[in-house]
Amino acid sequence: MPGVSSTDSIESLRALVSDVYVNLKLSLKLDLPKGRESVPEFFDRVRRQYPTMSELKRYRDELALETAGGGDEPYRWLAVRSKNVRSGVVNPEAWMGAHTLHEHVLEVAPYFLSISSLDIESVEVLFGMDLLSAGNHDEVVFDALVSDTPMAALMEPDAQVSDCQPVLCWSVGAGAGVEVQYEVMTRLHGRSREAGPEPLSVYLTCRRSGPVTELSELIGVYRSLSGLGERLVSERVIPHLVMPIRDSIVAS
Fold first, then answer.
1. Phi and psi angles of residue 94, each rounded to the nearest 5 degrees, phi first
2. Which class in CATH covers the domain with range 6-251?
3. I want to staple 161 with a disulfide (CB 3.0 to 4.6 A). Which of 79, 138, 192, 220 is the partner?
4. C-beta separation of 175 from 188 below 8 A
């Protein structure tokens, strides 16, 4: 938004939700090398830039480097699977606090993991927002986004909403075009109002598919997607998803 700094923008959003996070996903066409040394060397290079990312973990399908417990810095993580590299920052002080990690990952990952420009399947940036809510999340979302629309007439009288997780996608351009997806994810389904609060999530994903001519283009692709995402969060997600859901939570 013109005249609004990155810090002011994210502070306004964080006043409305419990957590804000920005994730990167670089998807590949070919499997990454399985050698023992390549991923740890990649992680070590990132750790030198972000020293608090010092905890190495192995999950079922991935290796991850995460921020060690404690400290005042935002939580950062980096994960490598066979066909993608992902990273995330939770509750950054400004959008740029997340973007710098993701740009660093895009800059160094190709050289440590032998990724070529032809290997790029897609670049994806996700803006996530969690709102704590008890009770039936699906009813909260239905009341916020559906109850005043023609779709509400599909419900039988006295019926209970058991699943309401809307997804909306739109795309621009052909070939290496951009796809935008809005998604609401619920976690408490049909529970009583006495159930403890859990996150109800709103996601905005901006994705560009297709290979790049040169690896140096990846930073520009990321900046284009993240800039679009920041604008859509301010202009679309906050007023048309976050605020109605938040009001519905308060009213429930």
1. -145, 160
2. alpha beta
3. 138
4. no
